[in-house]
Specification:
The chain has helices spanning 24-34, 52-61, 112-116; strands at 11-12, 17-18, 21-22, 66-67, 74-79, 82-92, 95-102, 106-111, 121-125. By secondary structure, the protein is an alpha+beta fold. The chain has one domain: Alpha-Beta Complex (endopeptidase fold (from Nostoc punctiforme)).
């Protein structure tokens, strides 16, 4: 069971990979650790600037399997054909939500349908 209260102290930091300073990819690995799942590569210094997030996400997807939304699944979010954001599916109180980390709002846990409506395309990976 994920302790969502832990993430109230997270502050968004571009390129952040060390709790409590995380960005969208940083929150994915932090939650994967908390769920007892293997970590994915850290991608230290990778941000969406200059297509870095898109490039590294696509490379990682080559070693993963596309899946349906389920707890622990990574979420790739597309604007057009480019991955511009990532998150992770969590189960909070019996409801699947997407955990994400953004500037100003820090960590949020949005219901799947609300999260998906913000992007051109959303894919789930394990």
């Amino acid at each position: 069971m994920l302790n969502a209260d832990k993430y109230c102290s997270v502050v968004w930091l571009k390129g952040g990979r060390s709790y409590p300073n995380l960005d969208c990819f940083g929150i994915v690995n932090e939650i994967r650790r908390d769920l007892g799942l293997p970590e994915w590569p850290e991608f230290s210094g990778v941000t969406k600037d200059d297509g870095g997030l898109d490039r590294e996400a696509r490379n990682l997807m080559k070693s993963l399997r596309a899946c349906e939304a389920a707890e622990g699944a990574g979420v790739a979010c597309f604007s057009g054909s480019v991955v511009t954001h990532v998150g992770i599916v969590v189960n909070l109180d019996g409801e699947l939500r997407v955990a994400e980390c953004n500037p100003k709002t820090n960590v949020t846990f949005l219901p799947l349908s609300r999260f998906k409506s913000r992007f051109v395309k959303v894919e789930f990976w394990e």
